[in-house]
Structure formats: C-alpha cells, structure tokens
Amino acid sequence: MIEVKVVTLRLEAEGIVGIELRAADSSPLPPFEPGAHIDVHLPGEKTRQYSLCNDASDTSLYRLGVGRSATSRGGSAYIHENLRLGDRLTISEPRTLFRLSPEADRHRFIAGGIGITPILAMIRWCVHHERPWELHYCVRSRSHAAYVDELRSFGGSVHLYVDDEEQARIPRDVGMMMRNMDAGEHVYCCGPGGLMDAVAAHGEQAGLPPERIHFERFAAPPAETRVHENGSFSIVLARSGLRCVVKPEESILECLERHGVQAVSSCREGLCRSCEVALLSGEADHRDYVLGADEQEANKSLMICVSRARSSELVIDL
Ligand code: FES
C-alpha cells in the first residue's frame, strides 16, 4: 500500500475530474506500464480501480481521470463531492491487465467516454516511441470530451464521434472505426459495454484473430445480462484442508469470509484480477471479465469473487 496526497484537482470535462497524486513522503512512485490501473481506497472501506493516464516514464506522480457514474455506489460520488487538495489516500501498486502488444506494428484505439484514460497513457507511449497510432473516441457531447486538445497536440489521427451531434450510430460506426486494418495492427478498446460488445462482434465478423483485439472493462455488465444459475458446490483449501459449501446466493470469496478466511480482493466484480487463486482440481465456471478465452480453457486459476464451479468440488491453492 502507498500513501499519496492529492496535489491537483481539476475539471477535465463535464462529469470528469482530473486528479494528480504524489507520494506523501515525496519519493518516486512505482513504475507502471501504459494501460495500468491502481486501486484507490476510499472512506467506508470502498476500493475503486482507476486507470493511470500520465506518461508512464514519469514516476513523480500518478494522474487519474474519474468520471461521475450515474449508478455510483459511492466511489466516484465521493471523489467528485468530497475529495479536496491535500487529502491523503491509500493506493495499491499499479497492475496491468490492458497492455500494448509487443507484436503490433500499429495501434488502433477505440475509446468511449471515461474509457479514454488508459488509452491516453498508451497514446503517450506511442508518441514517445514514435509508433503509428490512431484514435476513435466516442463521447456523449463535446462538453463530455476530456483531453481532446492534448490528444490533438500529439499529431496523430484523432477521430471524435459526438453522440448528440450525429446520432449514436454504434455499431455501424464500429465498422468504420475498424476498416482498413493492417495485418500487424492491433485494436484496443475501453468504454461502455455496448461499445466493447460491438467491437468484439465486428472483429469476429471481420475474422480478426482475438489476440489482436484488447479490451479493458471498467464496469461489470448489468446484472440482468449475467449468468444467474447458481448451484451450491464444495470448496477445499489445499493448504489448510478447510472444506466448505458455497451456497447459491454467495460467492466463493463470501463463503471463505463466512468461515473466517480473509482472501485478497478488490473490485469483487471479476474486473481487477486481485482475487485470482490457483485451481488445483475441479472445473471452474468462469464468470470474470479479465481472463482470456485461452486462460479460462486452461482452467488453472479462477477469480473467487465471481466464478463458480462446473464440478461438484473445487480445490484451490489457499
Ligand atoms: S476482486 Fe477483482 S476480480 Fe475478484
């Protein structure tokens, strides 16, 4: 855990506050990769994940952009209403689940709303390393478009799609955003679920190999679209030998907590990978948004905050 203080707060666009954090003791912060995020611990035992959007070579500070969520469970609302200059916060070390592919010759970015934040750090890297890139950035209105002047100053190709000016046309526009792709070009998408689903569907339709499309989710899909069939199953902790039954209405993580076992977790929505545990036997029913299809198929680990079991028992490395 790192203690930081808030050194800058500014409005980047309507509903988006920009925050700069420096280490409380003024030491350099841990290095990070473009696309990385940190956990920010907020009052009331709330933990939220925010992407770092500054230049990854500058470890004197971390820059975040926080969008005010209409469905805020207290995280973004606290930041928008209560956070003040000089406040101290505890954050995690940066983690990277969304990264630039070393295989790519060109990078094509598709961002929706606050999904621009990890992409901004990636574009800074491309500019710094003189790699070709282009950005397709979808916003609700021009007043909601954060960082546009900065993005345009980088000299790359920036396409802005403004919903209230040209009618929302996703997924039709996604075809346009993804046309004329070079063989070595990769796509990186971060934004609302509808945009990411449209990009995934278009990529599949266009025969783009899944390893050339990279996604970062910052919210789980709405509850009504998630899998709901939950049965009970047994979980065995290999190290302690503890065996317990996970009830249909609880997660493995909650079951462990009910038995006094404190496991690491953060988002509790299958988004951040902090609760990943090695799976020693049994077959998982993966319900996270971070493991790739190949990792889910390999069945070597699972996110205990959301995933369940296809077999009657799972043995995990805890
Ligand atoms: S706590 Fe974030 S994936 Fe489980």
Automatic annotation (TrEMBL):
* GO molecular function annotation: 2 iron, 2 sulfur cluster binding; metal ion binding; oxidoreductase activity
Looking up InterPro entries in the UniProt record yields: 2Fe-2S_ferredoxin-like_sf, 2Fe-2S_ferredoxin-type, Beta-grasp_dom_sf, DmmA-like_N, FAD-bd_FR_type, FNR_nucleotide-bd, MRET, Riboflavin_synthase-like_b-brl
Q: Which Pfam families match?
A: DmmA-like_N (PF22290), Fer2 (PF00111)
Please indicate if the UniProt record lists Zinc as a keyword: no
Q: Where is the 2Fe-2S ferredoxin-type domain?
A: 233-318
Q: Which domain of life is it from?
A: Bacteria
| Gene3D superfamilies attached to this UniProt entry | 3.10.20.30, Nucleotide-binding domain of ferredoxin-NADP reductase (FNR) module, Translation factors
Ranges for domain FAD-binding FR-type come to: 1-101
This protein's UniProt keywords: 2Fe-2S, Flavoprotein, Iron, Iron-sulfur, Metal-binding, Oxidoreductase
Classification via PROSITE patterns: 2FE2S_FER_2, FAD_FR
Name of the featured protein: Oxidoreductase
Origin organism lineage: Bacteria, Pseudomonadati, Pseudomonadota, Betaproteobacteria, Burkholderiales
